Amino acid sequence: MKTLVTLVFLLILSFFVSSAMADSSLKVNFTTGNPGITSINSMTFGPEGILFIGDSKSAQIVAIDLSTHAKVKVSRVTINKLDKLIADMLGTTTDQVQITDMAVNPENNNIYLSVHHSSGTPVLLKVENETLKQVSLDNISHSKTSLIDPVNKGVKDKWDRELRKWAVADIQYNAGKVLLSGLSNKEFASTFRSVDFPFTKTQNYGSLEIYHAAHGAYETHAPIKTFIATNVNGSPHIVAGYTCTPLVLFSMDKIKPKAHNKGRTVAELGSGNSPLDMIEMNIEGKRFLVIANTNRPLMKMEFNDLEAYQGALTTPVTKKGAAAGVAYVNLPRVNVQQLDNYGDKNFLMIQREATGNLALKTGSSWWFQEE
User: Fold this and answer.
1) pLDDT at 370
2) Environment class of residue 46 by beta-carbon count within 10 Å: exposed (0-12), middle (13-18) or buried (19+)?
3) Which of 26, 32, 115, 332 has its CA 20 to 30 A from that of 318?
4) For residues 235 and 252, what is the distance between their CA atoms, to the nearest angstrom?
5) pLDDT tens digits, residue range 132-183?
6) How far apart are CA 277 and CA 126, in angstroms?
7) SS3 of 321, please?
8) DSSP letters of 267-279?
9) How far is 12 from 66, CA to CA, in rounded Å?
10) Residue 51 near residue 64 (C-beta atoms within 8 A)
11) Residue-wise pLDDT tens digits, 306-351
């Protein structure tokens, strides 16, 4: 009888140990300490409460463990004068801070903001009870890897703007890989990277080419400003937004490392604009692409229309500011700077309102429902 009890105990112990090892397998290479983050240009969550940070200044990806933060309920969020709240926390003025990204942990609904201070110090903030709390990065469980061949420091474009900040333009986690858009130091600088996680020494990347209908030219130097990884007609794709403002599809099955990859331009969303953020929403079984922009309203595009469009834009759109390709709807929300999904049917946005108020608030799913 004692032997049987011992055997049962060992089986139970083995189960829990195996479960714990399975739960922590993604964090096997994590260490605790200061990860040396010098900028937070883009963020995204993966499984197990892991936040991935694209650090352009140091040309690295940093994964930090935020799984200990307690789960909160999805509820209506409203934080007004967000920039003033951040500035007051940091002992400065609103013109000295810039919100660089927003990310929601889908496993526990916690909301995080990344902030660039004029001193160069990156700051990570967490929303708590409609106020903000700073997340210390000085001593945190993390793992990191350096980018191969990032755009060099000091390189500028023809308008004398530093390009290093586009070493990581956007970042997503998808099926065991960290996906990044940005610029490399190669002749065809526009780059898409696929990095295995947990991090290894292997890092796949290739150059990108698109047809820019508003410019009437093929381009290889402009980075993807924002993207999502999703299925289009049943196969995995990157839906990519570029400045001025082509929308391009890349088949993930056809993006090859160390190769030059061409995308299919499916829409021109209007020149004189740059996409800031992009999310996918699923409301009542219908999928939507939602895009925030610098100089245009929040855009809504139905995936049914995107999937039905089998053509490609290969000739110039000559009318200034005109749209072409897949149709979209302008929503009555302007100056939206950041987006992320929030729960199953909601989304969050940071918007500069007409009054000048910078607000973090819940977006309405009403605009995506059937009549």
Assistant:
1) 78
2) buried
3) 332
4) 8
5) 999 999 999 999 999 999 999 999 999 999 999 999 999 999 999 999 999 9
6) 20
7) coil
8) EE--SS--EEEEE
9) 28
10) yes
11) 999 999 999 999 999 999 999 999 999 999 999 999 998 899 999 9
pLDDT-derived band at 13, boundaries 50, 70, 90: very low
Pairing outcome for strands 260-262 and 204-212: parallel
Could you tell me if 61 and 144 are in contact, meaning their C-beta atoms sit under 8 angstroms apart?
yes
pLDDT in tens, 242-268: 999 999 999 999 888 889 999 999 999
Tokens of 44: 């995204």
Would you kindly state where each structural domain of the chain is located, as residue ranges? 35-146+332-371, 150-329
Q: What is the 3-state secondary structure (H, E, C) of 225-247?
A: CEEEEEEECCEEEEEEECCCCEE
88 HSE (CA, 13 A, CB side): 8
Burial (CB < 10 A; 0-12, 13-18, 19+), residue 33, is exposed
Listed in sequence order, the residues at least 6 apart from 94 whose beta carbon sits closer than 8 Å to its beta carbon are 83, 84, 86, 87
Sheet holding 324-325, edge to edge: 226-232, 235-241, 246-251, 264-268, 324-325
pLDDT beyond 80 at 19? no
Buried residues in 115-145 as b, exposed as e (16+ CB within 10 A):
bbbeeeebbbbbbeeeebeebebeebbbbbb
Peptide bond into 198 cis (omega under 30): yes
Task: Please say whether the beta carbons of 116 and 100 come within 8 A.
Answer: yes
CB-based contact 199:188 (threshold 8 Å): no
In Å, how far from its chain's centre is CA 356?
Answer: 26
- pLDDT value of residue 371: 65
The DSSP call for residue 220 is: S
- At residue 134, what is the residue type? Q
The pTM assigned to this predicted structure is 0.92
DSSP label of 155: -
pLDDT band at 57 (very low <50, low <70, confident <90, very high): very high
